[in-house]
UniProtKB/TrEMBL annotation, chain A:
<dbReference type="Pfam" id="PF00528">
    <property type="entry name" value="BPD_transp_1"/>
</dbReference>
<keyword id="KW-1003">Cell membrane</keyword>
<keyword id="KW-0813">Transport</keyword>
<dbReference type="InterPro" id="IPR000515">
    <property type="entry name" value="MetI-like"/>
</dbReference>
<comment type="similarity">
    <text>Belongs to the binding-protein-dependent transport system permease family.</text>
</comment>
<feature type="transmembrane region" description="Helical">
    <location>
        <begin position="199"/>
        <end position="219"/>
    </location>
</feature>
<keyword id="KW-0472">Membrane</keyword>
<dbReference type="Pfam" id="PF19300">
    <property type="entry name" value="BPD_transp_1_N"/>
</dbReference>
<protein>
    <submittedName>
        <fullName>ABC transporter permease</fullName>
    </submittedName>
</protein>
TrEMBL record, chain B:
<dbReference type="InterPro" id="IPR003439">
    <property type="entry name" value="ABC_transporter-like_ATP-bd"/>
</dbReference>
<keyword id="KW-0472">Membrane</keyword>
<dbReference type="GO" id="GO:0005886">
    <property type="term" value="C:plasma membrane"/>
</dbReference>
<keyword id="KW-0547">Nucleotide-binding</keyword>
<dbReference type="GO" id="GO:0016887">
    <property type="term" value="F:ATP hydrolysis activity"/>
</dbReference>
<dbReference type="InterPro" id="IPR013563">
    <property type="entry name" value="Oligopep_ABC_C"/>
</dbReference>
<dbReference type="Pfam" id="PF00005">
    <property type="entry name" value="ABC_tran"/>
</dbReference>
<feature type="domain" description="ABC transporter">
    <location>
        <begin position="6"/>
        <end position="257"/>
    </location>
</feature>
<keyword id="KW-0067">ATP-binding</keyword>
Length: 336, 342
């Protein structure tokens, strides 16, 4: 097992290296650049040239890339030019990361807690109203764009009904101590219940918006997978043994049906990171996605490079964990 | 003859699938099984033999399957039994083993759990005791090193081993009736013989009644006391084993026997297959379903449905025979089949 993990990590390093090359070229091929973003359209050529030189952008691109690699090897990922000018790009990532973890965790938990039971019920009651309803509901989840859903939720629950806060991560007036940067967890750790509750209320709308796609995908995969497993011979064997319904459901149906669902959850983390950019922007939820969106607007190369590379690293790590979990569920794929 | 353990009376199963013509898969099947008796249900694919067994076990989905008639087990009507009571009987008093041992075992649960869960369920034993009994059971069905095998998964076992494990599960609670649905079809020939010998031994030792479902007359010859031949969802012939092999009366039975190559016969003799396929079935309503494939077909066959009647013309001794045919095989017909000429 440990050899397998080491091999996967080595693969991850190669992947990240290739990604850095592509990313570097791709970002610099975008129209505009940090200089235009910082100085505006009506800047003088002299000012532009001076700034370009200061940022090292006057060098040929491969020289820039080599210098980037050289600094990256020393743990230096450059300085922000747009998101928070002057701040270290990695530091920006680290300060924003807890917010995105918190949001993604809630969104994914919501998607799993709703998606798996609903998918199971839909399969068990195939063809009934419950089934058709769940499938339609999940279709809506996939079809409605995340940013539209985010705006709709914000409009209805925050602006019209006023029951939930429209933006931010915590109310301004709250005096909260922050340890991990995940505000709900911080509130619980410091026993500042009001701070935890306030942070949780801020999380609800973005988490619901962000969970819509993973929820829909998990529901559909669970439904399809349970339908398939229900027809399996071993489920009939279990019934022939006179086992209780709960035993058949847990040990014989769900355990087999969840194998493809677990894989899906891993793949969904990618969608989650993409969705976070849109959701965090709509709800001004200051996480990685929010910084990423702002980084694009200001062509903040350093910040974009760090954020996208980190997102890729997380995606790789999550899928590695999923593969390990997969082996725990399915003895047939265990490494011998 | 002791009182029957299982009495199947006019059992019918109709498939009523949405958007499809209703189809009668099992049509008024009636037979009894006495304690310790081995009864064969024989026929080709699609004749309704597996559906009959699933209907007895109440394992057919309620949707799309209409089961009528009566199945009494030790005097209790099973078809109207509440689900919970039926679950108490399944695995404890009636058990079943299936055709394909690999797909019939849960791939992600160790063999030991799959055997011991029947014991914990029906005997209320705790896990440790159940695991010990499961190991004893595996030993009994001839799985070597049972304590190690308990922890293994189905994919780590050989085909014969898997079928033995399934038999161990079915017999773990000493059921009074075992239904074996083509238990040897997915196995190679040497393993088939071992599994059949094992089944015979276990059934003899424990006095368990056995319903053997098969398309293989070789299995019937080695095992069954009484045989029911099914065609198109109906029993077409019933007899004790010896009379049936010595003097098949229904043309379908004759065809099944005629299509087996014989080692002791003339090497140049042609086989005498049944022509056509199950798809050539016609409904039983006003005809004999077998008529389109029958060498004996006469004028009544396409107009009058034959009834299952005592066969008084059969000459072999051996108790009551039943037959559903207008023009049963005579000694001369059998001679023709024997000689391989139609």
């Amino acid at each position: 097992m440990s050899r397998y993990i080491v091999r996967r990590l080595l693969q991850a390093i190669v992947t990240l290296f290739v990604l850095s090359l592509l990313l570097f070229a791709w970002l610099r091929s975008l129209p505009g650049g940090p200089v235009s973003a910082l100085l505006g359209e009506r800047s003088t050529p002299e000012d532009r040239a001076a700034l370009e030189q200061a940022l090292g952008l006057d060098q040929p691109i491969f020289i820039q890339y080599l210098r980037f690699l050289e600094r990256a090897a020393q743990g230096q990922f450059g300085v922000s030019t747009g998101v928070l000018p002057g701040r270290d790009a990695l530091e920006i990532f680290l300060s924003r990361f807890p917010a995105t973890i918190e949001l993604s965790f809630f969104a994914l938990t919501l998607a799993i807690l709703l998606g798996i039971p609903l998918g199971y019920l839909a399969a068990r009651h195939r063809g009934t109203f419950l089934d058709t309803g769940s499938v339609l509901f999940s279709l809506v989840g996939i079809a409605v764009p995340v940013f539209f859903l985010a705006f709709a939720l914000k409009y209805v629950f925050a602006i019209q009904l006023g029951v939930l806060p429209p933006s931010g991560r915590q109310s301004v007036g709250i005096n909260a101590t922050h340890i991990t940067g995940m505000y709900v967890l911080d509130g619980l750790l410091t026993r500042e219940w009001d701070a935890a509750w306030d942070a949780l209320r801020h999380l609800i709308l973005p988490a619901v918006a962000l969970s819509s796609i993973p929820f829909a995908v998990i529901l559909r995969i669970t439904r399809a997978s349970v339908l398939e497993v229900l027809d399996e011979d071993y489920v009939r064997t279990a019934q022939a043994k006179g086992l209780r319904a709960a035993t058949i459901r847990g040990r014989h149906v769900l355990r087999n049906a969840l194998i493809p669902v677990v894989t899906t959850i891993g793949l969904q983390t990618g969608a989650l990171l993409a969705g976070a950019v849109l959701t965090e922007r709509v709800f001004t939820f200051r996480g990685v996605g929010h910084a990423l969106a702002y980084g694009f607007e200001t062509r903040d190369y350093a910040v974009l490079q760090v954020l996208i590379m980190m997102a890729a690293l997380i995606y790789i790590l999550v899928n590695m964990v999923v593969d390990i979990a997969y082996a725990a569920i399915d003895p047939r794929v265990r490494v011998r | 003859m002791s009182t029957p353990l299982l009495e199947v009376d006019d059992l019918s199963v109709r498939f009523t699938r949405q958007g499809q013509e209703p189809f009668t898969a099992v049509d008024k099947v009636t037979f009894n099984v006495a304690p310790g008796e081995v009864v064969g249900l024989v026929g080709e694919s699609g004749c309704g033999k597996s559906v009959t067994s699933l209907a007895i076990m109440r394992l057919l989905a309620r949707r799309g399957n209409q089961v009528t008639g009566s199945v009494r087990f030790a005097g209790t009507e099973l078809l109207t039994l509440p689900d919970a009571a039926m679950r108490d009987k399944r695995g404890a008093e009636l058990a079943m083993i299936f055709q394909d041992p690999l797909s019939s075992l849960n791939p992600v649960v160790p063999i030991g759990v799959q055997v011991s869960e029947v014991i914990t369920r029906h005997r209320g034993e705790n896990r440790a005791v159940a695991a010990r009994q499961a190991a004893e059971m595996l030993d009994k069905v001839g799985i070597p090193d049972p304590t190690r095998r308990l922890k293994e998964y189905p994919h780590q076992l050989s085909g014969g081993m898997r079928q033995r494990a399934l038999i161990a599960m079915a017999l773990a609670c000493e059921p009074r009736l075992l239904i074996a649905d083509e238990p040897t079809t997915a196995l190679d020939v040497t393993i088939q013989a071992q599994i059949l010998a094992l089944l015979t031994d276990l059934v003899e030792q424990s006095g368990t009644a056995l319903i053997m479902i098969t398309h293989d007359l070789g299995v019937v010859a080695g095992l069954c006391d009484g045989v029911n031949v099914l065609y198109g969802g109906r029993i077409v012939e019933r007899a004790k084993r010896h009379p049936l092999f010595a003097e098949p009366r229904h043309p379908y039975t004759g065809g099944l026997l005629g299509s087996i190559p014989r080692l002791d016969g003339d090497r140049d003799a042609r086989l005498f297959p049944i022509r056509g396929s199950v798809a050539d079935n016609i409904p039983w309503d006003h005809a004999c379903a077998f008529a389109p494939r029958c060498h004996q077909e006469g004028e009544k066959c396409r107009t009058v449905a034959p009834d299952l009647l005592p066969d008084e013309e059969a000459r072999t001794d051996g108790g009551l025979r039943l037959l559903r045919c207008h023009y049963p095989l005579t000694a001369a017909d059998r001679q023709r089949i024997e000689e391989g000429r139609a």
